[in-house]
Amino acid sequence: MNDISASAYPIGTPGQPWEAAEKARWRALQSKKRSYADEVLARIEALRGAFDVVQYGELDWGADGCYPLFALRSRGWDDALPVALVTGGVHGYETSGVQGALLFAARDAAAYAGRANLLIAPCVSPWAYERIQRWNPLALDPNRNFVAESPCAESAALCAFVQPLRGRIAMHIDLHETTDSDEREFRPALAARDGKPYEPGTIPDGFYLCADSARPAPAFQQAINTAVAAVTHIAPADPDGTIIGSPVVAPGVIEYDYRALGLCAGITDAAYVTTTEVYPDSPRADPAQCNEAQAAAVRAALEFALAHP
Q1: What range does the domain containing 218 cover?
Q2: What is the pLDDT of residues 238-259, one digit of tens each?
Q3: What is the value of pTM for the model shown?
Q4: Gene3D superfamilies annotated for this entry (predicted)?
Q5: Is 1 inside a domain boundary?
């Protein structure tokens, strides 16, 4: 991507929110860069022997194609067991969220048979996954649209799928990344779309968690960071005591109000919820390490939730 952080975004008029024409121009500039079928659906298909594969929706994006939405569900589901929800790819460009969820499913999930019911939605936003984008084709951020009557099809489909289990889910971990492209592309695009001035920020070097301010569960967050620290480094706070502008409440932990912001990790009533943030652009990390960090976070979250019902 071009570095446009210091100049006006190339779509729209500064100070004016985008209308349909600007959104259409933005969409026309997005091109397919990788294959959801090859990188995600093929791996899900390979797991049919270990999971029930459930199609919970399909996105029809016209000339861009149709995208079936799948989740992996524990085989031998037992209503007496707690339910754990793992989501990835809410932002399609955040690769380790998708691949980390699939890594956990393929390698680690069997250890929880008879201990928990697992529900894994590894790629919530497949159109964006293929285009290495944050938004969906309508220039909507799925992770601000997990709300009632959502205008975002990706968010609405997952909400409808999870709704029957909402009160039974004990743990939900949503797998994300913070990348250099947030500052190069996605935050400038957001400012342009909304007709607001772009305010440069910082990108933390390392892994961190975003807890729910309504359900912070500090010991749960600490257990995840402790496990991940064996795989990759935890992000330090900026000199002002913040990470991405939010106060650090514990090492490598910030808080958001999930439901007020329409975030994915706010869609259940689980006592234990968190959003991971891996930094794939660090010189101290590589893609495999980022996937491992996500899988480690899922394991640690599950172990803590099962030990503290």
Answers
A1: 20-307
A2: 999 999 999 999 999 999 999 9
A3: 0.96
A4: Zn peptidases
A5: no
The residue type of 268 is T
Residue 73 CB burial class (10 angstroms; 0-12, 13-18, ≥19): middle
Interval 274-285: pLDDT, tens: 999 999 999 999
CATH number of the domain to which 299 belongs? 3.40.630.10
Kindly state whether residue 15 falls inside one of the protein's structural domains: no
Summarize pLDDT for 131-190 with one digit per residue, the tens: 999 999 999 999 999 999 999 999 999 999 999 999 999 999 999 999 999 999 999 999
